[in-house]
Specification:
By secondary structure, the protein is of the alpha/beta class. Helix content is about 35%, strand content about 20%. It has 2 domains: about 110 residues, Rossmann fold (3-Layer(aba) Sandwich); about 150 residues, Succinyl-CoA synthetase domains (Rossmann fold). The strands form 2 sheets. The protein has a 7-stranded mixed β-sheet, with helices on both faces. A 7-stranded mixed β-sheet has the order 9-8-11-10-12-13-14, with helices on both faces.
């Protein structure tokens, strides 16, 4: 089954005629992700690598029936693009765009909840379920189908873990990179709940970082989970008040430090590690979940 991206996924790219949109389209077509349409206002009637382009999401939905959108428009247009997708009935929206204003992100997230759409991002590396679809910037070359779910703020950390798992002969059910901005849609606890319900997922990796309280809230979800959760928090040496990478990765109150999150996750029953290598070694030793 996997989560978010599965056998029923039909992808649309909003901003497909731009450089980033074309890059994603070429990647999806090459790796057989079910890309069915693109949207770029004023560019309707064109094609990108054989994929039809429409002026509006409504037209794309009517003609090609997408149910998932990858948003790669400039940040000042992200709010309007997402609202258009929600109003057209798109239920899964992955916002790859970086630099979306916080007030726009707040509006997007709240509007999606009212309308029943799922938002991943903004500034999200995306979601991939090997063998079903890849709506992320993670290379298909390192993705291998298996039984381990991954949720992360960081595409880079996810890339490292996936590569090490594949090298050990292990695979993943779904990797969900939810974004590192202060305001995002789906959060750790939401993804953990999905993995708990997914019969294909047998264990979960949570990759966190300093800043915010999402990992602490995730600890409450972990307490009720039957599946093992393996966690790593990046940013152990980050000085207070220093932003590390993502806009939301900054320690302000101490409760958003790596050490505090480590303690809370461990108290909740997660297996928590101080390095990626230790985490992967533990999974190999304890689970031995085959990618086949």
């Amino acid at each position: 089954m996997a989560i978010i991206i599965d056998e029923n996924t039909r992808v649309m790219i909003q901003g497909i005629t731009g450089a980033v949109g074309r890059m994603f389209a070429q990647k999806m077509i090459h790796n057989k992700t079910p890309l069915v349409a693109g949207v770029s206002p004023g560019k309707g009637g064109q094609e990108v690598y054989g994929i039809p382009v429409y002026n509006t999401v409504e037209e794309a939905v009517k003609e090609r029936s997408p149910n998932t959108s990858l948003v790669v428009v400039p940040p000042q247009h992200a709010k309007d693009a997402v609202i258009e997708a929600i109003d057209a009935g798109i239920k899964i929206i992955i916002i790859y765009t970086e630099g979306v204003p916080i007030h726009d992100a707040l509006y997007i997230v709240n509007y999606s909840k009212l309308k029943g759409s799922l938002i991943i991002g903004p500034n999200a590396a995306g979601v991939a379920s090997p063998g079903k679809g890849n709506v992320s910037d993670i290379s298909d070359d390192i993705l291998s189908a298996g039984n381990i779910g991954i949720v992360s703020r960081s595409g880079t950390l996810s890339y490292e873990v996936i590569y090490k798992l594949k090298s050990a002969g292990l695979g993943i059910s779904t990797v969900a990179c939810i974004g590192g901005d202060p305001v995002i849609g789906l959060r750790y606890r939401d993804i953990l709940e999905m993995f708990e319900r997914d019969p294909e997922t047998k264990a979960v990796i949570l990759l966190g970082e300093i800043g915010g309280t999402d990992e602490i809230k995730a600890a409450e979800q972990i307490k009720s989970m039957s599946k093992p959760v393996y966690a790593y928090i990046a940013g152990w040496s980050a000085p207070p008040g220093k932003r590390m990478g993502h806009a939301g990765a900054i320690v302000i109150k101490g409760i958003d430090s790596a050490l505090y999150k480590y303690q809370k996750l461990r108290e909740a029953g997660a297996y928590v590690f101080s390095s990626i290598n230790e985490l992967v070694k533990s999974i190999i030793s304890n689970l031995g979940i085959s990618s086949k």
